[in-house]
């Protein structure tokens, strides 16, 4: 391969790098071990994976041409091979390759394995859909890579991104034990309730700043694109299955909070139980839905979900379904707490966190009546600046990352 053949990729790379802002970095940026030979970053469309990678290149390389960023959905790859590109880079002493949208590369797990094994000095960073199934792949990448997930913006990150205030994140148990202290520190500097509702409506994806007025339209398009593009790239599914998955999504979006009857869903979709469950769990992996189950969720053992939420409140507004205040609250809690902590559907209350902590979510007047006498039980209450005892302000759970 000659250098002029690679020039179109380099031109796009330089343009993207020049336009990348360094003023705000996602919290995950500082947790990533960039020194490993192969690392993956997966996440929903629009959460900032590309920006995060380009920020690292901009910060880590004095000479940006010591690395190359490519997006695997670039038309260049219709007539060129990734293996030929790596041969060219390796021969020219370029040992850092950043591959965006890896799921658009056919046999992507096999490609990554071969790149890792056959080019011992090559360092690979790739990003891909949150639907990627690394552990179920026919190619074992677990010994070769470190994998991270980039979630949507937390409320804490939103406040920083807006330039309102900057605070550190808290661990879940630390927040439970010290929530009064933390809430006092934060509310002494910021009137958090003033910003919380806007965040719930349109503040969970960084691209809201460039598309404020039509943000919900763009987010709904990103959801549909995930189904039409990512689902077909990751799963071996037909066009008919994609259409049924869209219908399933809208049935649930219009009926929130959704307590599923899988048999009725199967009838509405004209499909089998196994196919219906596969669609539900695919939507969960995509971040478009959150499935709550009595036992710990396991993507290798698909059980009937006990309750279903959309992936986050922004998606609720974007899909224009049932925007009920109580469901918005529960969806926010599930999204933020569930990002790094296992959630289960309890016999009493709304959520069981880490198999131990029982939560009811509600408004400022919420009582302990439903979970009284239960050990390690808490209320997550909305419209409250500072809590007391086991009553914790709902917004504060947006400070976990």
Protein described:
The chain has 13 helices and twelve strands. With 401 residues, the chain is of the alpha/beta class. The protein has two domains: 148 residues, Rossmann fold, CATH 3.40.50; 243 residues, no CATH class. The strands form three sheets. It has a five-stranded parallel beta sheet with strand order 2-3-4-1-5, with helices on both faces. Helix 8 packs across helix 9. The longest helix is centred in the middle third of the chain and has 20 residues. The two termini are 44 Å apart.
Secondary-structure content class: alpha/beta
Number of strands: 12
Instruction: Provide the residue-averaged pLDDT.
Output: 92
- Strand portion, in percent? 5-15%
Question: What's the structural blueprint in terms of helices and strands?
Answer:
Elements: H1 3-18, E1 38-43, H2 49-60, E2 67-71, H3 82-91, E3 96-100, H4 108-118, E4 123-129, E5 146-150, H5 155-161, H6 172-187, H7 192-202, H8 215-234, H9 239-253, H10 262-269, H11 273-285, E6 289-292, E7 307-310, H12 313-319, H13 325-337, E8 343-344, E9 351-353, E10 357-362, E11 377-381, E12 391-393
Parallel strand pairs: 1-4, 1-5, 2-3, 3-4, 10-11, 11-12
Antiparallel strand pairs: 6-7, 8-9, 9-10
Helix pairs in contact: 7-12, 8-9, 8-12, 9-11, 10-11
């Amino acid at each position: 391969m000659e250098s002029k053949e690679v020039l179109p990729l380099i031109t796009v790379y330089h343009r993207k790098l020049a336009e990348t802002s360094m003023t705000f970095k996602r919290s995950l940026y500082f947790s990533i071990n960039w020194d490993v030979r192969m690392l993956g970053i997966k996440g929903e469309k629009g959460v900032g994976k590309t920006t995060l990678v380009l920020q690292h290149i901009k910060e880590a390389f004095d000479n940006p041409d010591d690395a190359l960023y490519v997006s695997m959905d670039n038309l260049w790859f219709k007539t060129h091979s990734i293996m030929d590109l790596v041969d060219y880079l390796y021969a020219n002493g370029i040992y850092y390759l950043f591959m965006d949208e890896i799921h658009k590369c056919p046999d992507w797990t096999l490609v990554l394995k071969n790149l890792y094994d056959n080019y011992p000095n090559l360092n690979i960073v790739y990003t891909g859909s949150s639907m990627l199934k690394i552990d179920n792949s026919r190619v074992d990448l677990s010994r070769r890579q470190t994998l991270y997930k980039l979630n949507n913006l937390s409320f804490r990150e939103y406040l920083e991104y807006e330039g309102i205030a900057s605070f550190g994140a808290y661990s879940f148990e630390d927040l439970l034990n010290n929530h009064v202290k933390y809430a006092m520190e934060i509310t002494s500097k910021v009137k958090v309730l003033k910003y919380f509702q806007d965040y719930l409506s349109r503040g969970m994806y960084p691209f809201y700043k460039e598309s404020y007025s039509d943000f919900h339209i763009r987010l709904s398009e990103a959801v549909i694109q995930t189904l039409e593009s990512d689902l077909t790239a990751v799963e071996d599914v037909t066009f008919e299955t994609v259409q049924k998955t869209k219908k399933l999504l809208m049935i649930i979006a219009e009926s929130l909070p959704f307590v599923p009857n899988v048999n009725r869903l199967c009838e509405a979709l004209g499909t089998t139980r196994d196919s219906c469950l596969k669609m539900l769990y695919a939507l969960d992996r995509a971040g478009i839905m959150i499935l709550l189950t009595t036992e710990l969720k396991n993507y290798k053992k698909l059980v009937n979900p006990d309750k279903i939420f959309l992936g986050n409140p922004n998606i609720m507004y974007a899909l224009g379904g049932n925007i009920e205040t109580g469901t918005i609250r529960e969806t926010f809690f599930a999204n933020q707490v569930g990002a790094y902590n296992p959630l289960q559907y309890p016999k009493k209350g709304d959520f069981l966190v880490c198999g131990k902590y029982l939560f009811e979510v509600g408004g400022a007047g919420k009582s302990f009546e439903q979970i009284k006498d239960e050990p390690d039980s808490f209320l997550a209450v909305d419209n409250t600046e500072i809590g007391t005892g086991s009553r914790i302000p709902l917004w504060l759970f947006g400070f976990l990352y």
